[in-house]
Task: inverse folding
């Protein structure tokens, strides 16, 4: 019974969202508003069950982690945002999260976005037994990365052999990349569409297996 | 107190956490472990701001009977209904040992279908965008079009039927030129993030302070 009602409700809201393809209507608007409320409500439950309860309340009530009162009180300062006269106090927890987050993020960003990327781009152009398309691919990858970087370098005018030709090759590589990403995204969305159609025709109407 | 102290917290916290990464000493590890316990707690309370703002906005709309105010109930009822049914009365709909509660029903049969349908809806819009954007008017637009078509055809059975070269070429594009472009963009993003991190830590960038008091 639970599953049957669930599938009918799910099918109703699936069709409600698809009704937007015709034009915006009250049923679509209802679904749109519901999803905002449910997702935030769900996040509240999730945060309470995974953070507030096990990391703050349980250790505090167990009586051996009184130090956790500090982050608890710091977190509560967010509420002052709603009281204009002391709203500035809400900057303290934001500053804590912002400062420490930036500090931790700095070496990690350097590692993941810069050093690892440079390391991965330094591949051998040719090794014995390597098929031609891999050799060609490695050349495209190394010089393509350099060319795309030249395209994004705006401190010098894109003229001459190095900057002019480099940036032209760079935009070609970027367009290939954008095209591939677009194609990949389209395929992902089409898979989701197929999933919803299978839900409607299979789970709901039982027309297909 | 209103601006200087938060800026100092950011600078001290930022430098401390940045430096501890490079010092594999036990004290440094203790600081980091404490941070890992504290940060989620402080961060979790930020949800209060989101819930508070959304509640204020929609209760305001209902009170003023603003345009489409009826839909605000569709936000507020599940917003507080979810925690109520999940934490206060988590009874099962099926009774007994059945684990499905009201909150579970709302999530599985309303939230999940609506969200995946919304994402799948983009398939239609992305197709219409492609129709407008993918006109081979220039050499660059033609490259974009060709790359997208080859990657798309390479991932469906018809691509295999048309020729083995199609999926292989699609894979090659994804593996080499696509990666080159992505890597260059990632390097740019990385340098941007590093610069922003430093600007925030050293107080050059202060927009995060907002306008709460002066």
Result:
């Amino acid at each position: 019974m639970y599953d049957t009602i669930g599938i009918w409700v799910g099918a109703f809201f699936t069709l409600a969202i698809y009704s937007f393809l015709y034009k915006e209507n009250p049923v679509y608007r209802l679904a749109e508003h519901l999803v905002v409320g449910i997702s935030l409500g769900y996040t509240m439950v999730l945060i309470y069950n995974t953070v507030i309860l096990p990391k703050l309340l349980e250790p505090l009530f167990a009586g051996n982690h009184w130090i956790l009162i500090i982050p608890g009180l710091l977190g509560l300062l967010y509420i002052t945002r709603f009281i204009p006269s002391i709203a500035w106090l809400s900057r303290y927890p934001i500053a804590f999260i912002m400062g420490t987050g930036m500090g931790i993020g700095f070496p990690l960003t350097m590692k993941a976005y810069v050093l690892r990327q440079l390391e991965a781009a330094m591949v051998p152009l040719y090794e014995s037994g390597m098929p031609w398309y891999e050799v060609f691919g490695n050349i495209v990858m190394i010089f393509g990365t350099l060319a795309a970087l030249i395209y994004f370098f705006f401190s010098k005018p894109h003229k001459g052999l190095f900057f002019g030709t480099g940036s032209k090759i760079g935009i070609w590589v970027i367009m290939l990349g954008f095209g591939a990403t677009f194609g990949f995204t389209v395929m992902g969305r089409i898979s989701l569409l197929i999933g919803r159609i299978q839900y409607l025709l299979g789970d709901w109407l039982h027309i297909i297996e | 107190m209103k601006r200087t102290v938060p800026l100092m917290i950011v600078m001290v916290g930022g430098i401390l956490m940045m430096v501890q990464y490079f010092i594999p000493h036990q004290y440094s590890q203790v600081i980091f472990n404490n941070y890992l316990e504290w940060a989620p707690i402080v961060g979790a309370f930020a949800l209060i701001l989101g819930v508070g703002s959304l509640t204020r906005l929609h209760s305001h709309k209902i009170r003023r009977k603003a345009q489409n105010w009826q839909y605000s109930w569709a936000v507020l009822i599940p917003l507080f209904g979810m925690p109520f049914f999940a934490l206060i009365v988590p009874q099962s709909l099926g009774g007994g040992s059945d684990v499905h509660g009201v909150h579970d029903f709302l999530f599985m049969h309303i939230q999940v279908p609506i969200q995946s349908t919304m994402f799948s809806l983009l398939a239609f819009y992305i197709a219409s965008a492609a129709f407008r954007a993918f006109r081979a008017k220039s050499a660059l637009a033609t490259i974009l079009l060709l790359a997208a078509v080859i990657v798309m055809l390479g991932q469906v059975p018809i691509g295999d039927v048309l020729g083995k070269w199609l999926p292989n070429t699609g894979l090659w594009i994804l593996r080499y030129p696509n990666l080159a472009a992505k890597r260059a963009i990632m390097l740019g993003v990385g340098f941007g993030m590093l610069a922003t991190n430093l600007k925030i830590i050293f107080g050059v960038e202060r927009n995060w302070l907002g306008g709460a008091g002066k």
Remarks:
- Residues 70 and 200 of chain A are 51 Å apart (CA to CA).
- Residues 123-209 of chain A form one domain.
